[in-house]
């Protein structure tokens, strides 16, 4: 396949040129205005397809490091087919899948069946993140690691494995395993508040019209996120110091969906003091661009964990992004049924779909010169590939997989969840304007944003 008449983003710049794709790989990048590609086309490509890109921009496929693909016991919310089709049509060519399945993915047998269900049912590539086995069973962890999972996830608000993640001894034990196996631990940072505190917060809202998103923010406030970040950092240092670990033995930890000023400041200050620590973090498009004062036809459409914060937090995070202080983005794609979201606040689950809005809202910031394309590609593609060692992806380079998006700037239009491929056809980004068109998406040279395309995604395994 040849993609001609394109604007190719490679190594930080855009140049007009031609991409030659052979056997799913980028064979050649020809920036010169010449006819060399015709010779390659005739001699090697056996007269396959030439696509005129009409001066549209080609960037690497997006790697989304945080999503919930559902399926198994939750296929009324989403399936591997619907979730990965939604990703593929959006330009997301690799996703990391979280373990809150039914039953939860915390044993080798459950992780095996989870992966087996995905085979031949995914339109994009999927990396799996496991839950931690009960009692932090080391032998079971070893077996799960052998399956090729990308890491392990902990959730202190309601552990799926009956482990108390506010207990330092449990954190130390898990970090010791991370140190020995050099496998990442993905952390949802939030310290649970007491029942008494919750009741007090509900009482505060009792005699006034409830603002659901403000209430949700008060129940899961920025201070508890920062408290858990600090708790994790203290335990991280303690393990290193107590065991006199060499750099190569440091545990690997990743903070999911950082949403507030103090959390980010804690992490940044820690890394400023020692940039060799194996600590990374992500934020989400909704925590960058939305706040809890948005008006929604159903406020539960904006209910998510961590909550949408006051505007000061989103503005701070976006400024940190454009100054290059945020390296990674994850959508936290978390589909639910509309029926669930129509329940009253306390019964409606947290989460909403994120694949199909992520590129539209952040690339629109590129169109509006609020964010550079170079920075977008770094956080969306290059950094995830580099940080998590996803080989041959994230860049447009010769020899790399032809996972690509062709994008264009068009007249602005409102985001309409009814057009989503996910089953969850609602979004807090509804009616927000975008000027971005995802024209074509390729996975190893296959054009995947077509309705009749068969699933060709693969399970990406760690260290393969």
How are the elements arranged and paired?
Elements: E1 2-10, E2 13-22, E3 25-30, H1 36-44, E4 50-52, E5 57-60, E6 62-67, H2 80-90, E7 92-97, H3 108-118, E8 125-131, H4 138-146, E9 151-154, H5 168-181, E10 184-187, H6 195-205, H7 212-219, H8 222-243, E11 252-255, H9 261-273, E12 279-281, H10 285-289, H11 311-322, H12 338-341, H13 358-367, H14 373-387, E13 404-414, E14 433-443, E15 446-447
Helix pairs in contact: 5-8, 8-9
Percentage of residues in helical conformation: 25-40%
- What's the helix count? 14
Average pLDDT number = 94
**What proportion strand?**
15-25%
- Number of self-contained structural domains: 2
Major sheet size, sense and barrel closure: 8 strands, mixed
CATH topology of the largest domain: TIM Barrel
Beta strand count: 15
Radius of gyration: 22 Å
CATH superfamily of the largest domain: Metal-dependent hydrolases
Q: Strand-and-helix sequence, N→C?
A: EEEHEEEHEHEHEHEHHHEHEHHHHHEEE
The poorly predicted ranges are: none
**Coarse morphology:** globular
- What structural category do the secondary elements indicate? alpha/beta
CATH top level of the largest domain is: Alpha Beta
Distance between the termini: 27 Å
What is the CATH architecture assignment of the largest domain? Alpha-Beta Barrel
What would a concise description of this structure say?
The protein is 33% helix and 19% strand.
List its traits.
2 domains; 15 strands; seven-stranded parallel β-sheet; 19% strand; 464 residues; alpha/beta; globular
